Amino acid sequence: MNEPVLVINCGSSSIKYALVPAAADQPRLTGLAERLGSGDARLKGVDSRGEAFTRDLGDAGHVEALAAILEGLEGRRPGAVGHRIVHGGEQFTRAALIDDEVVAAIEATSALAPLHNPANLQGVAATRALFAELPQVAVFDTAFHQSLPPRAYRYALPEALYREHGIRRYGFHGTSHAYVSARADALAGIEGGWLTAHLGNGCSTAAVWQGQSLDTSMGLTPLEGLVMGTRSGDVDPGLHAHLARELGWSLERINDVLNRGSGLLGLSGLSNDMRELEAAAEAGHAGAALAVEVFCSRIAKSLAALSCALPRLDGIVFTGGIGENSPRVREQVVALLPHFGLALDPEANRETIRGHEGRIDAPAPNRPALWVIPTDEEGRIADETRQLLGETAR
Ligand code: ADP
Predict the structure, then answer these.
(1) For the domain 190-377, what is the CATH superfamily, name and number?
(2) Cα distance between residue 110 and residue 160, in whole Å
(3) pLDDT-based confidence at 271, cuts 50/70/90?
(4) CATH topology for 5-140?
(5) Where is this site: Transition state stabilizer (predicted)?
């Protein structure tokens, strides 16, 4: 398929899009329709000359916003649509061509991702209504981690909770971990063992061996694992009962605090934005310094724990807004892993920012490498969409 793929990431009040051409050297058109359904919707994007534009969309909902996105594609018609879907449960181990059955299966998984899957499906319904003739593909955040062995995905809970209710670890950010680990394989010229750290607003780690995810830090929901922008990551499982008993907090309140009021924001009392925290820590703000310290310490502990899943450690890959742009976080994480025998190159670390890909260590035989690899979830979704359509066309 030579036409571009339209990649859609649909939230409850927003649609992020990218028109990804078949050739990597052609420009992408990207943008975001936001505040949908609020009466004050707008479309922000970047055109093929790299110039930013904004359009008011008034009381547009998802369908109207998609129509506006299509108009803004400068006459380029996509050959297919690739949808980012957060949760594919155990059913989807790879991308799937969307039909009524697949939509029903995604709906059936909504209990596991109540904020995300229904919103993702709104995007699917709107695109199917608008582009009935185009093939649509669902690419799942969880699919890459379906290769986890039971010892990594089972919780030590009564078996019936798993068998009857699907309570297990699923993992997320799969598209990103898949992309950066494949890229690390290509750059290193091996099918290696990688620890990947996706550090953005949401944060997760994965252990990838020869292209297969063997363990990951997120679990049943994207709340497990690392400290994130506003999410707590791991806490004592007894915390919920304690807060309910001692403070009389409702489940909704506890859930809200752990998802929206914790993490870097909760620790620092200042911000969920790493740039702001680094500047404040530099200026002597104790809460900001502590937040960065806990953040890095949790990453290092997670990487050390996940290394148990790998037969051999060939390197650590940093990605996501923080992983790609914060030499300070990378340096602190590496400093907390002295037993891995890593050798950070301070100058390469300082200089590898703003979308640059490269090694930030001094290469030596038998020493795990340190890579910064900007993630490309849209590119990966487009690739998986093309690959699936190529296979079904045969
Ligand atoms: P999302 O998970 O929403 O896609 P991103 O991957 O864009 O988010 O990551 C957002 C995070 O990256 C924010 O905490 C932001 O502060 C951080 N970040 C972006 N640029 C820098 C920088 N130059 N230094 C430190 N952190 C940065």
Answers:
(1) ATPase, nucleotide binding domain (3.30.420.40)
(2) 20
(3) very high
(4) Nucleotidyltransferase; domain 5 (3.30.420)
(5) 173, 231
Instruction: Report the pLDDT value the prediction gives residue 394, as an integer from 0 to 100.
Output: 66
HSE toward the beta carbon, residue 321, CA cutoff 13 A: 10
Range among 107-111, 116-120, 333-337 with highest mean pLDDT value: 333-337
Which residues are bridge partners to 96 per DSSP? Answer: 138
Taking the CA of residue 353 as reference, the ligand 1 atom at the shortest distance is: 23
So where are the chain's domains?
5-140, 190-377
Q: Determine the residue of 299, 325, 373, 375 to mutate for testing ligand 1's pocket, defined as the one with the most ligand atoms within 8 A of the Cβ atom.
A: 325
Q: Is 141 designated active site?
A: yes
Kindly give the distance from the C-alpha atom of residue 224 to the centroid of ligand 1, in angstroms, as a whole number. Answer: 20
Residues 120-179: tens digit of each pLDDT: 999 999 999 988 899 999 999 999 999 999 999 999 999 999 999 999 999 999 999 999
Q: How many residues does the chain have?
A: 394
Q: What are phi and psi of 270, to 5 degrees?
A: -125, -55
pLDDT over 90 at 393, yes or no: no
Query: What pLDDT digit, counting tens, does each position of 176-207 carry?
Result: 999 999 999 999 999 999 999 999 999 999 99
Identify the active-site residue in 141, 215, 314, 361. Answer: 141
Closest ligand 1 atom to Cα of 264: 14
Residues flagged as binding site for Mg(2+): 9, 377
- Whole-model pTM? 0.96
